[in-house]
Amino acid sequence: MRRNTHERWGSVSIGLHWTVAALVLLVQVPAGLGMVASAPGTLQNILYNVHKTTGLTIFILVVIRLGWRWAHPVPALPADLPAWQARTARLTHGLLYLLLFLMPISGFLYTTLGGFPVPFFGLYDLARLMPVNKPLGEVFKNIHLGLQFALYAVVLLHVAGALQHHVVRQDGVLRRMLSSRTPLPELRDRLP
Description:
single chain; Fumarate Reductase Cytochrome B subunit
């Protein structure tokens, strides 16, 4: 099932979710940590380029995911979910989208305004699109670095919420993000 329903996420939403999660956790974080820990040279340059290209790719995927989300229904939360948890879930999702937009934008502006290249898959240097302004680049550097810790915190809250649904409530909310086809009988009785 490609499309979302009111009960569950479709395969497109699931694929975009896990692709972005994998790119952030398995590529961006290690490349980001590695590039600042590496001595100047070939390895550091490769890690910077991987980090920049992956950041732009994440931005594009998040735009696609948000467009898909607006065009298709969002599965309902269980009817018996406490109101504060429903608000927290909505806030967490909103913050995740916001941070996944702001991180690549701030990183792009920091890099381009700082006079550094942004080779998108090695095909074109996107830094040519912006004039160099190193003081403003430093502002965006600080924003980018600060946002990383906000993203870590929101991702941890998101994962904790998913695990709480799966382990404590056992309501199928996590399972519906794992597969668009696995039966969710326990959810049918809990949806509004």
